[in-house]
Amino acid sequence: MNRRDFLKTSAAATAGSLFLAGSTATAASANSKLNIALIGTWGRALAFTDTISKENVVALCDVDENHLNEAAKRFPKAKTYVDWRKCLEQKDIEAVIIATPDHTHAFIATWAMNRGFHVYCEKPQGNSVEEARLVRATYLKNKNRLATQLGIQRHAFTNFSRVRELIRDGAIGDLRSVHTWGNRQLRRPGYLPAKGQPPKTLHYDLWLGPSPHHPYNPDYFSGRAGANCLQWNMYWDFGTGQVGDMGSHTMDLAWNAIDAGLPTSATAKGDPFNPEVTPVKLHMTFEHPANDWRGPVRVHWHQGGAMPLMSKSYPFVDLNKIGHGAMFKGSEGFLVTNYHNRIIIPVGKRGDLTYYTPRTEETVIPPLGHFMGEWINACKGDLKTSCDFDYGGTMTEQMMLGLVAYRVGQKIKYDGKTGRVTDCPQANELLKRQYRPGWKLNG
Ligand SMILES: NC(=O)c1ccc[n+]([C@@H]2O[C@H](COP(=O)([O-])OP(=O)(O)OC[C@H]3O[C@@H](n4cnc5c(N)ncnc54)[C@H](O)[C@@H]3O)[C@@H](O)[C@H]2O)c1
Q1: Most CB within 10 Å of its CB: which of 246, 320, 349, 418?
Q2: Which of 36-50, 74-88, 337-351 has the weakest average pLDDT?
Q3: SS3 327
């Protein structure tokens, strides 16, 4: 049983018997309620209402006063803020949930951990290599006192564990590569043109936050609750397109199964570069070194119409019918999966599965349970979660590095220890984003 399997087992084992981590200055006791600050109160945050209603929501923050007022009706005891920097000064906060747009995630997460708060942060863990690394490094520094979880909640679907078991136990032989993909296509020509003035209830300058200024346009705010991210996440200064959006969920299918760290190279090609809008069609490839149970693997992300090729011997398997999925290729076969279901396709002379022994009922990975509940329990107990900022950080860093390879248009070699590209100075310039004066990432 390796660390990830152990984590899941121990999480299940302790679900009913929480204990206090003595080293955690801010840990709530197992039976007490957690003091939570919710930053970003509408949209995605609405999915958390039931879970966090069982805790103490002590602070609410939103740049849109209408959203803030609605949230205050749900959590009348909470103090309210429009600026997350002010919110994080509130002394009784123990844990922070971040459900704001992507260009603020790394800022809020880092500031919150620097103040000793546990953090649940919506995906992605940052919009650049630098951001993903800083959030991970800040977590690793505080690992013995803080619980973190990246908001990739599909991770709790039992299929993720079944896929991990099959890959880890050799159901397709020795793992060689894994392809992940998503078919969402949102084409935009460029930033929206200036249109009208922001309503008085919207603090537009705070919405822009650290990102370079772009004029107000109501279309950035016209999406339905939980899907408004599709109004802004394709623009470079606000998001990273499908790489950070569905890519975070779908790469997790692979990440959970392959125990990878940082890649040694990245290469990417797709739509012609647009300085305002992220590519729709894109194929990124990463090389990962061998670890203690498998050889080197190639990891791929395909999006917006780019797709992996299925072997011609299996014309009845149409990958295009899977909107978001993954295909693992091994020496003895393929495993094809979406978030919920999987199939094994044995190939070649040994395609009889005799080389593979399925787990028993006792040795399968136990269910993870409620994804945000796992984090809340961890804040009150052993600090262990399935998708902490170490796990989420390496996954996000890989994806952000792929966008750098796309922008320089060549294969780049990467040193994960130093976080530097070793053969392309221009690529190193693109590991960071540009911020407006006055905004500090590590504050
Ligand atoms: N895990 C998932 O399945 C899932 C699903 C949808 C969205 N998301 C993620 O959730 C996040 C929010 O997405 P959304 O569609 O709800 O976006 P949204 O544009 O609706 O924004 C969410 C809320 O944050 C507020 N907000 C914006 N900037 C803020 C700031 N600087 N400080 C405080 N509040 C601010 C908005 O006013 C809004 O109330 C994104 O990172 C997105 O990727 C995750």
Answers
A1: 246
A2: 337-351
A3: strand
